[in-house]
Structure formats: C-alpha cells, structure tokens
C-alpha cells in the first residue's frame, strides 16, 4: 500500500532546552516525527526516564529515542520518503519470561552471580505483558508506513521455567482471558520474597531491612494480594506466532529437563535451596554464570529446608506439549505435523511476497546457548532455495531456477553470536550447527533481509556485510520485556522504489503509565510498578538499553533483485 500523507508531530520542541545535546536530540525527534505517520505511543515520542539521578527513583516521561539512519549496507536516497511502499509490518515480542515466581524449582540463591535468578519485579510479569498487548492493540499499525500490523512474533523465553501453569498464563496473555497469577497456597505467598532472607526483596516486611529496602525500595503492604489477584488480558487483535526459547524447554533455561535431581521437585513440597555439597553449589554457580558444563559432575543430594504447597500445574511441559497447547487457538505457527514429528520450526506467510521462517535454536542437551540440529539446518536451506530464483550453492556456484522470489525474515530466539552450544542431544544425537554457519548460509541467498532474535535481553542491531551487497542482511536483536528497558519492537519492511529497501525498527513500551500509585490494584498500576522495580533492580545492566543506533533506526539495504 502507498505511504499515507506525512504529518509533522514536532514532539518535545522547547525553547527552554539549553544544552547542545538536548537541542540535537530535539532536532532528531522532530525529524523522526516529520518522516513518520505518527509517533504517539512509541519511543519516538517519549521513553521511560528516572526522576532522580541516584538512589531508588520513580520514572517519568523522558525524551524519545532519535531515529538513526544506518547506511552500513547501502546508501539512502533522498527521495525515499515520497516513494516508499510498506511491504510488511511486524511486531516482535521477546523474552516475556512469564514466571511462576513461587515455583520450588528456581535458583534464587544464585542471584549474586546471575541477575535472572530472582528479580524484584517478577511477581508482576503477567500484568506487564498484558499491558504490552494493550499497547500493540492501541497502535494497530506501523509508525512509518501506516500499514496495519501483519503479525506479532514472540521470539522465545515466553515462559521462564517451562511449567504448564506458565504456559497457560502466556497463552491467556496473547489470546486474551482471565489470569490468576498464583500457585501453591491460595492464602499466602510462598516465594523467596516472603522468606525473611535479606538477600531478597521482602516487599511486605519492613523489619527485614534487606538490601533492596536499604537501598530505598518501598515496603508495600498487601503487595502479594494485589499481585496474585485475577486480571484480564485483552488478547492481541492480530495473528501471532510463537518461537521456542531455552527457558521454554529446560529447567530455568539452563539444565536439561530430564535431570533427575530436580525433575520430581516441580510438583512436590520441597523448595530447592541448593545442594548439601558446597562444591556442588559452586559448580551450579559456575553453570549459571558462564554456561559451564561442570553441573554434570555435581552431587544430586539437595537440601530439604524449605517446604511449599504442592501444585500439579507446575509440571514441566515437553516441547511436544508446548506446541500442542497452541493448537486450539489456531496453532500460532505450529501444526499437527509439528506435534507429530516434534519439530519446533516452520514457515509462515507474513504478507504478499514476504515469508517468515521460525527456527528452533534451543538445544535439548541443556544450557543457555543454542544451535541448529542438522535436520533443521538442511530444511532451512531447502526453504530458502525454494523461494529464490538465484542463489549460491554449497560449492560457491551461482544457481538459477524459475521460481517467484520471496523476501525472507528469519526469526529465532538465539542470536548469531549466542548459537555456540553444539553439544549433542542424547535423544537425537545429530550434528549441530553454530550461529556462524547459519549466518554464512543466509548469505548465500539474495532475499534474506533480516534475522530477528532475542535471548541477550539487549537492543543490538548488526549489519552482516557481504561482498555482493544483495547478499547482505540485518540482524535485529531486541531487549526483553522482563528486564528494563522492557521493550518490544515494530519492524516495517519498505520498498523505496529506488533500488533500496528500508527496515524501520521502532521500540515500544507497555501501555502502563510511567508513574502510578504503588498501592494501586489495577492492572495498569501494577504494570507501572513492574517497570519501576525493573529500573531500580540493583542487578540492572545499563548496556541492555543499547546505543541510539540499536534502537529506533532506518536500516538501508540493497533491493535483492534491482
């Protein structure tokens, strides 16, 4: 569809800006507004910013992120705003980590070496995710093309500990429905945050003076009553697709699901707090901190000092069960064939002439990093070949055949640099292929325009350059929605009608206000607190935000056939 008439939203301009840096930011935002159909509700307009520069702080609406034009792979033409046509409009969710924070099989005691082991905001994840759905429904279309969203793709770690109850909540977030985010006892919270241990945020207990409260975190009476109350997600108003992440098929995203020491504990009454052996605890810490395989040699004797209310809904799901659970609401990429074969990868039509390829980059052998099994690696090559009139074969020879060319957008959980785990899966002992091999394979084809992924919880955009510019592509990695900055991303593919394509990558936040009542019980209030606590998390990494060139961008690349 042709680009609608441009409207100038000169957001944020103010004569009171006194520094050159702020003036430059304002000019960039005005330029982005001038080039876009709208900025409202996106980080082109505004983004979460701290009120205070030190200590615990509330958040407020800060300046938006500038639009950065990246010409790493092709030169932009000055007239493209007047000639571009939107080919596809996609929203990426990633790393929602819908978590049962009261699960007995979690590793909170490792939060000194791994920030994801226990987050101060984790009890509010379903409220935060539902408000992200609200935002996408409200926006409905891309800010630079005005094209209605063709689909949402959630690129893995949709659950946190691959429990059936987490999957139930995730599907309710995406499809719509009532969520009661509570497990175990109905009348009390049984997670680490009511343990009295000062290592954790004891949000309702001022007497503990834990390291969070000592740093200024609020003590909130009735927090868990509000956090576990039933609330409703509206569900996405657009079709959506689901991708596997390592947290969707392993214990806490790290350990193989059949690891005997923990498998039976999911539905039991014993809370895992470590091993009886200090050496084993140290090995587990190394595993979480570095991805080391040292865990294979540890004792399986666990401490039994903490008991919880058993809950059968915590039973871990298998990859087959994960896919089967998607079928009643349309499959979201998975089919009966996927369920029958156990293959977690598929293709889907995004728009006319644009095909999505969903990869399963998880390794059933366990550990956080990923790779592709040989069968999937060969399948990927067949799919790309079938949609390409011109490609380079394994021996470097140019091949041509009479097919209609498709443009391809690749989706996976892992990035090209985190697909390094080539351990053989004992259940399927096939050759595994690392990210570098996948990248080189994609470069054999002219019509791969983007590889979209998550896993690192970081905004990062990488240009993959080839000597033939038509075989270059962009890798778009987006921050999570569990850790600050809690982003999702709109990706718009445009034909500029001048021999180039543009990929616009606009970050969005949830619909929750930047500051709300910390004692409120509305979903929006709790989602606001979810964001605020994530910003103040002492384990927060500012690097996850990425640079300007990793956030709101226009990525230029050569048209593959012109």
Give a description of the structure.
This protein has 562 residues and is an alpha/beta fold. The protein is 21% helix and 18% strand. It contains twelve helices and 21 strands. It has a seven-stranded mixed sheet with strand order 3-21-20-19-4-5-8. The chain has a six-stranded mixed sheet with strand order 9-10-14-16-18-17, with helices on one face. The longest helix is centred in the N-terminal third of the chain and has 16 residues, at 20-35. The chain is globular.
* Helicity level: 10-25%
**Overall pLDDT confidence:** 90
Helical segment count: 12
The count of β-strands is 21
Rounded to an integer in angstroms, the radius of gyration calculated over CA atoms is: 23 Å
Distance between the termini: 20 Å
Defining traits:
562 residues; alpha/beta; 21% helix; disordered N terminus
Quick summary of this structure?
By secondary structure, this protein is α/β, with parallel strands linked by helices. It has helices spanning 20-35, 80-83, 125-139, 164-175, 223-227, 260-263, 278-290, 319-326, 336-341, 374-386, 435-442, 523-536; strands at residues 46-50, 59-63, 68-70, 85-93, 151-154, 177-179, 231-233, 240-242, 346-351, 354-358, 372-373, 390-392, 398-400, 407-411, 432-433, 448-453, 460-464, 473-477, 488-495, 500-508, 553-558.
List the helices and strands and how they pair.
Elements: H1 20-35, E1 46-50, E2 59-63, E3 68-70, H2 80-83, E4 85-93, H3 125-139, E5 151-154, H4 164-175, E6 177-179, H5 223-227, E7 231-233, E8 240-242, H6 260-263, H7 278-290, H8 319-326, H9 336-341, E9 346-351, E10 354-358, E11 372-373, H10 374-386, E12 390-392, E13 398-400, E14 407-411, E15 432-433, H11 435-442, E16 448-453, E17 460-464, E18 473-477, E19 488-495, E20 500-508, H12 523-536, E21 553-558
Parallel strand pairs: 3-21, 4-5, 5-8, 10-14, 14-16, 16-18
Antiparallel strand pairs: 1-2, 4-19, 6-7, 9-10, 11-15, 12-13, 17-18, 19-20, 20-21
């Amino acid at each position: 569809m042709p680009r609608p008439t441009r409207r100038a939203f000169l957001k944020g301009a103010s004569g009171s800006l006194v520094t050159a840096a702020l003036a430059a930011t304002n000019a960039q935002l005005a330029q982005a507004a001038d080039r876009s159909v709208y900025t409202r509700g996106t980080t082109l307009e505004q983004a979460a910013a701290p009120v205070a520069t030190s200590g615990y702080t509330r958040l407020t609406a800060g300046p938006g992120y500038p639009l950065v034009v990246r010409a790493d792979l092709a030169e932009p033409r000055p007239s493209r705003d007047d000639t571009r046509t939107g080919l596809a409009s996609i929203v990426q969710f990633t790393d929602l980590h819908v978590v049962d924070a009261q699960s007995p099989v979690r590793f909170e005691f490792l939060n000194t070496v791994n920030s994801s082991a226990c987050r101060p905001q984790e009890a509010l994840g379903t409220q935060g995710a539902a408000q992200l759905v609200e935002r996408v429904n409200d926006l409905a279309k891309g800010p630079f093309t005005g094209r209605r969203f063709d689909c949402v793709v959630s690129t893995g770690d949709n659950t946190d500990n691959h429990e059936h109850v987490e999957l139930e909540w995730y599907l309710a977030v995406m499809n719509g429905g009532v969520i009661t985010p509570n497990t175990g006892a109905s009348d009390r919270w049984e997670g680490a945050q009511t343990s009295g241990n000062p290592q954790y945020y004891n949000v309702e207990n001022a007497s503990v003076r834990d390291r969070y409260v000592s740093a200024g975190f609020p003590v909130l009476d009735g927090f868990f009553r509000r956090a576990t109350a039933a609330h409703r997600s509206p569900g996405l108003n657009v079709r959506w697709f689901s991708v596997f992440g390592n947290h969707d098929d392993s214990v806490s995203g790290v350990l193989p699901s059949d690891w005997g020491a923990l498998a039976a504990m999911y539905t039991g009454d014993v809370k895992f707090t470590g091993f009886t052996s200090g050496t084993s605890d140290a090995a587990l810490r190394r595993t979480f901190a570095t991805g080391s395989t040292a865990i294979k040699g540890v004792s399986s004797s666990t401490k039994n000092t903490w008991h919880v209310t058993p809950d059968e809904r915590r039973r871990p799901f298998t990859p087959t069960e994960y896919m089967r659970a998607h079928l009643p609401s349309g499959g979201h990429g998975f089919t009966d064939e996927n369920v029958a074969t156990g293959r977690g990868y598929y293709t889907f039509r995004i728009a006319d002439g644009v095909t999505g390829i969903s990869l399963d980059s998880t390794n059933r052998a366990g550990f956080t990093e990923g790779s592709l099994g040989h069968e999937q690696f060969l399948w990927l090559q067949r799919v790309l070949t079938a949609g390409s009139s011109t490609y380079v074969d394994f021996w470097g020879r140019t091949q041509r055949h009479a097919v209609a060319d498709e443009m391809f957008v690749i989706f996976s959980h892992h990035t090209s640099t985190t697909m390094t785990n080539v351990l053989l899966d004992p259940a399927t002992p096939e050759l595994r292929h690392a990210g570098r091999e996948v990248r080189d394979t994609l470069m054999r084809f002219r019509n791969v325009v983007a590889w979209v992924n998550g896993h690192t919880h970081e905004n990062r955009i990488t240009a993959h350059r080839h000597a033939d510019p038509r075989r270059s592509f962009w890798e778009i990695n987006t921050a999570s929605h569990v850790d600050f900055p809690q982003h999702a991303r709109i990706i718009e593919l445009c034909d500029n009608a001048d021999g180039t394509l543009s990929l616009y990558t606009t970050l969005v936040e949830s619909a929750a206000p930047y500051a709300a009542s910390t004692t409120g019980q509305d979903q929006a209030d709790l989602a606001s607190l979810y964001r605020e606590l994530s910003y103040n998390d002492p384990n927060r990494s500012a690097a996850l935000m990425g640079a300007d060139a990793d956030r709101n961008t226009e990525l230029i690349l050569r048209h593959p056939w012109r």
